[in-house]
Amino acid sequence: IPSGEAAARYSNAMMSVNEMGKRILELLPRVESEEQLTAELLEEYEVEPETLRADVREFLGALREHGVLLD
After folding, report:
1. What does the pLDDT average to over 17-41?
2. What is the average per-residue pLDDT within 14-42?
3. CA atoms of 10 and 65, how far apart (whole Å)
4. How far is C-alpha 49 from the chain's CA centre?
5. Cβ distance 5 to 19 under 8 Å?
6. Under 8 Å CB-to-CB from 56, ≥6 apart: which residues?
7. What pLDDT, in 10s, does the model give residues 40-57?
8. Residue 11 confidence (pLDDT) above 60
9. Quick check: 24 and 37 in contact, CB under 8 A?
10. Pairwise CA distance, residues 12 & 22, whole Å
11. What angle do CA 31, 50, 34 make, to 5 degrees?
12. How far apart are CA 21 and CA 49, in angstroms?
């Protein structure tokens, strides 16, 4: 979720995500790493671990690229 300068850039923008993207956004504030996020998602979804890792990495990369997620 953007804040500060990123929020100003996206104040009129909208982002569409699927069910898993929504769940990732819900979990982000309480997980400490990409690995922890993936582990939590693996408990909730029936998906191959490598596929999920790649999807999480890609989603987080897109959030970073658009300034929505800051490291």
Report:
1. 95
2. 93
3. 13
4. 16
5. no
6. 24, 34, 37, 38, 41
7. 999 999 999 999 999 999
8. no
9. yes
10. 19
11. 20
12. 16
State the sign of the Cα–Cα–Cα–Cα dihedral 12, 16, 22, 27.
negative
First and final C-alpha spacing in the chain:
12
Residues 15, 40: Cα–Cα separation, whole Å: 23
* Distance, CA of 29 to CA of 21 (rounded, Å): 14
The whole-angstrom separation of Cα 55 and Cα 57 is: 5
Classify residue 60 as exposed, middle or buried by CB count within 10 Å of its CB (0-12, 13-18, 19+). Answer: middle
Can you list the alpha helix ranges (DSSP code H) found in the chain?
4-9, 19-27, 34-44, 49-65
Task: Name the DSSP class of 18.
Answer: -
Q: What is the mean pLDDT of residues 15-31?
A: 92
